């Protein structure tokens, strides 16, 4: 059964030694050693084998270049890959997992030839270079890509009518074009902010230029002063999503009625 890389991070060891090669079983150890150092084949033995532990003060992420060779169904392949990790062992672990995922290479068919820390200016792979940009942004998650409409409840007309009477009727009307302390809310849906004739808007409302839709109203009603900084409106907002949805439903229905 092929050797598999375990789920945990691999451990790094330093092995010093020599194998006694024979004509029948030539040592692969010497093949790779000869590629790295000018060492001749000779009788020898392993002198030491010890695990290498990372420096206690090490903790910063580094770029590591990994030179490797692996055998596939079609032949032998040499590769250079780059990874970001805090230790050499972590970078090699990523290499094994990456090769298994991308090329279905088995762990015992992968030979790590060289691992070396690489300066940011010397990196070659785009996936590593992007981390050197000081203006890099985190990717959007799936939830942030969902349409805002999906997060807005449908709303209940009767409940919205009750909310309007309790929170809005003192300053606004919705069944006529008359203005009170605030502008009329009739025809609010689809209207641009600060455009009701005859009403003295604050500069903040005029300059906002937002078109009132279900989405913009849902966000505005949560915290009006945050949505339009500088507004003179004293309304503190509605924290409950259901109350905002109910009020929007009521305004949609009433705004569509002719006067």
TrEMBL record:
Entry PTM: Binds 1 heme group per subunit.
A GO molecular function held by the record: heme binding
Keyword terms: Electron transport, Heme, Iron, Metal-binding, Mitochondrion, Respiratory chain, Ribonucleoprotein, Ribosomal protein, Transport
GO cellular component: mitochondrial intermembrane space; ribonucleoprotein complex; ribosome
PANTHER family noted in UniProt: 60S RIBOSOMAL PROTEIN L18A
Role summary: Electron carrier protein. The oxidized form of the cytochrome c heme group can accept an electron from the heme group of the cytochrome c1 subunit of cytochrome reductase. Cytochrome c then transfers this electron to the cytochrome oxidase complex, the final protein carrier in the mitochondrial electron-transport chain.
Entry protein name: Large ribosomal subunit protein eL20
One of the GO biological process terms: translation
Ranges of residues in domain Cytochrome c: 155-255
Compartment(s): Mitochondrion intermembrane space
Family per record: Belongs to the cytochrome c family.
InterPro entries given in the database record: Cyt_c-like_dom (IPR009056), Cyt_c-like_dom_sf (IPR036909), Cyt_c_1A/1B (IPR002327), Ribosomal_eL20 (IPR028877), Ribosomal_eL20_dom (IPR023573), Ribosomal_eL20_eukaryotes (IPR021138)
Pfam family, one: Ribosomal_L18A
